[in-house]
Amino acid sequence: MRDQRSAVSGRFLLFARLPRALSLLLLLCLTPACGYHFSGISTLPQGVQKVSFAEVENQTLEVGVEKELQWALEREFRNHSRITVADNAEGIINVTLHRLDLRPLSFDSKDEVLEYQLMLQFDVSLTHRDTGQRLWQANNIQVVEDYSAIPQVVVTTSPKFLQETLDPRDLPGLTDVQFSETQRRLATARLFKTAAREVYFRLGESF
Q1: Quick one: how far is CA 197 from the chain centroid?
Q2: Which of 109, 135, 176, 191 would suit a FRET pair with 42, their CA atoms being 20 to 30 Å apart?
Q3: How many angstroms separate the first and last alpha carbons of the chain?
Q4: DSSP letter (8 states) at residue 53
Q5: Domains in the chain, start-ordered, CATH in brackets?
Q6: Residues with Cβ < 8 Å from 164, sequence gap 6 or more?
Q7: To the nearest 10°, the Cα dihedral for 197, 77, 70, 164?
Q8: The 3-state secondary structure of 152-177, one letter per residue
Q9: d(C-alpha 119, C-alpha 191), whole Å
Q10: Model confidence pLDDT, tens digit, residues 96-141
């Protein structure tokens, strides 16, 4: 116990001598919850080696979003998981979409919206195809994504913007409505990608 305390004290003494930003980064990456870190799911319960995705149940008023989320889930599992995605697999992943909300996030002095936030809420479960037994579930998962409503508040050098397909040179030619709709579409795609990663992460952490 004394040796463990000495090791911990020595670690935080080292952090104290580093610049604050670097110390925080190192501390976060030394903690068990340091992001999306596992390499892939290798085992699932009851001999499940393959998974398939049932049609996403969409309880929102947004038509077609269930297909977008299902595609994002399949891409995530195919790209990162050692579990095979196949038709008629032993394990079936079921997702129910409860909410897809759009709400103002910030305003200017004239009460015009500068930023919006998208919020997705859903349940996910893994069941065994033959027995129908529910092997795992996670309810009320929430993921959020922000986006700018007008070009004037966009930081074109930010990592988020640089990952998008929108060219900064096109911004002056877009109306605020066109820009906002484009940003919403891109933010929705990011939202579903984040949701798919969250499903993969939680499933991998559970087994």
Answers
A1: 5
A2: 191
A3: 30
A4: E
A5: 1-34 (no CATH), 40-206 (3.30.160.150)
A6: 186
A7: 60
A8: HHCCCCCHHHHCCCCCHHHHHHCCHH
A9: 8
A10: 999 999 999 888 888 888 889 999 999 999 999 999 999 999 999 9
